[in-house]
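Ticket reopened. Same input as before:
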Amino acid sequence: MRITVTVDGTSYTDDVEPRTLLVHHLREKLGKTGTVVGCDTSNCGACTVHLNGQSVKSCSVLAVQADGGEVTTVEGLARDGQLHPVQQAFRDNHALQCGFCTPGMIMQSIDLLADNPNPDEEAVREGLEGNLCRCTGYQNIVRAVRDAAGHMRPGAGPEAEQVAGGERTTTGVGGDS
Amino acid sequence: MTAMAEPEVGRARVRKEDERLITGRTRWTDNIALPGMVHMALLRSPTAHARITAIDTSAAKEMSGVIAVYTGDDLDPGGEVGMPNAWPITPDQKTPRRPMLAQGTVNFAGEAVAAVIARSAAEAEDALAEIDVDYEDLPVVLGLDNAVADGAPLVHEDMGTNKSAEWIFDSAAAGSGGDVQQAMSSSDVVVTRRFRQQRLVPAFMEPRSVVVDPTAPQLTMWSATQVPHILKTMVAMTLGLPEHQVRVIAPDVGGGFGGKLAVTPEECAAVVVAQKLGKPVKWTESRSETMVSAHHGRDQMQDISISASRDGTITGLKVDLLADMGAYLGIVGGGVPVLGAFMFNAIYKIPAYRFSCTTVFTNTTLTDAYRGAGRPEATFAIERIMDELAAELGMDPMQLREKNWIKHDEFPYTTVSTLTYDSGNYEAATAKAMQLFDYDGLRREQAERRARGDRVQLGIGISTFTEMCGLAPSRVLGSLDYGAGGWEHAAIRMLPTGKVEVVTGASPHGQGHETAWSQIVADQLGVGFDDIEILHGDTQSSHKGLDTYGSRSLAVGGIAVVKAAEKVIAKARKVAAHLMEASEDDLEFADGKFTVRGTDTSTAIQDVALAVFAAHDLPEGVEPTLDSEAVYDPENFSFPHGTHLCAAEVDTDTGQVRLRSYVSVDDIGKVINPLIVEGQMHGGLAQGIAQALYEEAVYDEFGTLTSGTFADYLVPSAMDLPSFTTDRTETAATSNPLGVKGVGEAGTIASTPAVVNAVVDAVRHHGVDDIEMPLSPMRVWRAVHKGDTAAGGPGAEAGGGLGSIDSAHGGAQ
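Engineering reply: fixed in the latest deploy. New output:
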């Protein structure tokens, strides 16, 4: 099947097998290896990206479902060398060690902050429940997300993530927020 | 002396590593794609023990994109290749051959049986379904007691036994203490318990992956490994390759926790296949594959007795372990429980000690090092039984510990298990922890809740732990029959422009070596933190090393860096003296500058580096280089310690445990970077708490791993863990010039018994004196209401909780 997906601001048209998962399309066809695969039961969240402004586990979306859509990965967050506030906060708060869960964790954190610009600790923990980290014990991740919240105006994300009309729809994919 | 700039060591530097990792500019092994690369997929045995009577690969070979299909006999016709076990713990240890792909029999569910090589990973995976294997079932051996019972069926028939080895330490024989039987028979109190260390999965987030490129004379192998140097040597030895024609690269590695301290059948098979085809080959596992085929950890049955006089003075300690190795021995295998032998006596003065350990084969995935490797098991048992002894004596558990621990003025102290603890201050760490925790206040609340019969009971758990890390003095490893030494290598390259490259043999996979090593070198050489690059993980640039495990990177590898820096300065001093026409003895080195004492004449080390590069004007007989290397072999282990306190609320109606507060005060010696230390503590605590409350690798009676996905194996999420209060006290290690001890495993080692002690303490008035881990709501409830503290034997049930579905059995079935 022929699909067109805009990923991190670039439009790509490709023939894909119907069974191809979005994450495999991103990694193998488009070279977007910043997004990773950590499990095969959609538990770990390492592959989380934004599809049309909403976080999804890209292992749970078929590439063909993204046809015509706009995807933002962790590689598309920084602008002109300027880190996204959540990226900066992860660094400042030592919210990563091996860094394998980090792309998904950052993408989910941005989604969480879009829904709740000023989450308390409990809300952050709840919002990240679908993303596993084996290194940090989550404490510094929680700290980073709350730190980022303080640096972001309500609901702010990079322009690439703003959906036309700005309306967020609930898809039930990725995260429990 | 001129005033020093603010030292880098001790600063909470944000990590150099992070910028790439937070922007997705990563180099995981699975990201690597080479021209002409083909993909390998492995067919794994669905059955735990069977004879392979036939394998038909013809249909698979006809599938689209399939280039080749191999069986074990195809890869190793002579049946000679076996994965290495580097630690035969006794001269008569039984070590079965572990092939790349099963030959003749399969010995655990998940063992690889055949390999498909195809154009794409998906095509390789598709073709697996077309391979037809005939299995003739053999009796399945599961559970330690079953495996060692008389007449038990055998995992490896030709061995005649399921026991691999028996390793004994006896303080009477060693001359380090008395006879334990004698001590126990003459003591007022003897407490005996059987504790089960359930089987765990390391669960590093990055699944394993390997890429082998055979297209140059020197074969290159990328692997998601903790041990590129060991892998290079072992792959050469195992497959009979010339070692100089193997290059191993560990690029970005997504966690290990001991789980990637291995030389695997998958890595070796990829090499053989790549050589056969003359093409680059990639293998990346799925999470479901990791769960059954990467080694597990823990899995011991611990019989432990402690004796004491009425006043609480410990008189003897006796430990008998059965340790489940799974179907084969991994690279460290039987050595894991042996490491624990030195830690059961912990921080206490124990006059008589006997330890025995029998390593046992079962038809399960093999076990090997997992964060702490032997020391968490030992710490759990001693810290649990200290609480039981306190209960028996009617003493406060902290008072009992205090009565028996080594006092701060008694260091250095040689223990009953013959280790010499160089430094420590258990009183200081405990005092700080008690104050942060509000021990007295929580004890009061506990009494109130008990008095009013509150549904939610409060318990306090203590763990005053120590560990041995910085593995290890080579001569000690030699005395334990370990196959290698414990030194580490470092090299420093002074570049003409004044920048510095530091080569380290330690191989990070999330720890932050690049940052910490830069801080160390910045102070040693007086160069800028940002002017230093750390090279690691590629045997071509870092040709020598013993890699990262056992909290050894800083305490051994970091010291090698210091020693290399000292050599750079010694070389530079000669040249600086020559350039300034001064005597070497008159030079002071500080802040990166050599200054002629009593003058303002000075030259920077960067200027010396440039002068050496030009080499126009060097003193007679001086080589034109400042580059230096050092190999450091530690004289002793290091001994971090700490006091951990846990307050747990237990809902006696539901069995639900909630950790109300967790305080850890650790003494890890001098700290290079407090931010990294705090992160290591948090992550370590999470893994130790997860063992106490959530995680268990569960087998059904057929030997199928039923907790084989992240839906069933309960790696805790952010919702499942509390916020920790972590703090430190500091006594410098005297065994190394930085005074560092190591922090990688401390949290995991200490926290498990603190949590279990807290839960048992909360419900002890219900007659509960133990609950088997993980402390699922079902198990806690049953202990409270039915007095049933065992889980029903190994393999009977999973931990229950987040991903479990069968509440009748407390877990996934």
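Residues 142-406 of chain B form a domain with the Aldehyde Oxidoreductase; domain 4 fold (CATH 3.30.365.10). Chain B touches chain A through 55 residues (CB under 8 Å). Please confirm and we'll close it.
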